[in-house]
Amino acid sequence: MKKLFAAVLLIAAILCAGCGGDKKLVNNGDTVFVDLPAGEKFVNFAHSSVNGYVAHRKRRASEEPEEYVIDLVHQDAFGHSEQISKVYVIREH
């Protein structure tokens, strides 16, 4: 039974070794750099209190790689902007 469990863990580790490797995310304090895979075009960004989500698609031949800067502005309970809480820099390659 222990050998079967060890084999299943080994197979799962091998299969997941490449999981999530398509985007590089570097968190540098208040700035988060997201490097999209080569040939991908940034489409949209969404953010929750915990996670940020980046939508991307295949880049057309006529489109050039670009860099996008998204400032997340913290708001108080009344909707007044207080300060920039985090900056996301999304880079296409």
Give the topology:
Blueprint: H1 2-15, E1 24-28, E2 31-35, E3 40-47, E4 52-58, E5 67-75, E6 81-91
Parallel strand pairs: 2-6
Antiparallel strand pairs: 1-2, 3-4, 5-6
Molecular structure report:
With about 90 residues, the protein is an alpha+beta fold. It has one domain. About 15% of the residues lie in helices and about 50% in strands. It contains one helix and six strands; from the N terminus they run αββββββ. It has one helix at about 1-15, and strands at about 25-30, 30-35, 40-45, 50-60, 65-75, 80-90. The strands form two sheets. The protein has a four-stranded mixed beta sheet with strand order 1-2-6-5, with no helix packed on it. Strands 3-4 form a two-stranded antiparallel sheet. Residues about 15-20 have low confidence and may be disordered.
Largest sheet: 4 strands, mixed
Total number of helical segments? 1
Q: How large is the share of residues in beta strands? A: over 45%
The count of DSSP E runs of length 2 or more, i.e. the number of strands, is 6
Share of residues in helices: 10-25%
Distance between the amino and carboxyl termini: 47 Å
In the sheet with the most strands, the strands line up as 1-2-6-5
Poorly predicted runs of 5 or more residues: 15-21
String of helices and strands = HEEEEEE
Question: In one word, what is the shape?
Answer: flat
Q: Indicate the radius of gyration in whole angstroms.
A: 19 Å
- What is the overall pLDDT average? 78
The figure for the number of domains is: 1
The helix/strand class is alpha+beta
